[in-house]
Design goal:
Transcription Regulator spoIIAA, six-stranded mixed sheet, globular, alpha/beta, 6 strands
Amino acid sequence: MENLEISATKSSPEINFNASNYTLSMIGESYPENTSQFYESIYKWLDDCIASLDDQEMVFNIELIYFNSSSSKVLMDLFDTLEDASDEGKNIIVNWIYDEENDSALEYGEEFAEDMEALTFNLVEKS
């Protein structure tokens, strides 16, 4: 499986998915003009990655400073996919990384975490 790397732009986050160690990161801001199109390749890669998971742990680090409502929907769909995989016994951890001065990022992380039952969802204050 290939790594997936997408450079950040003014309106889209940096994506770095490492297939060899099952580490995924999403950093920056997310308000692309066509959210579905931007995240399409990410969903495909994630589905393939989850299918190849055996006993390995997958760690997904998300550090979004800002995201719009359409990105919020995409994130919720992403977390639902990860939740379903966790329900099936996959070992997946989400680290929602936020800056202590960004109250809204913390609040969004708390809201996402509330909906997760099987998925390990950590709120991590950026150091």
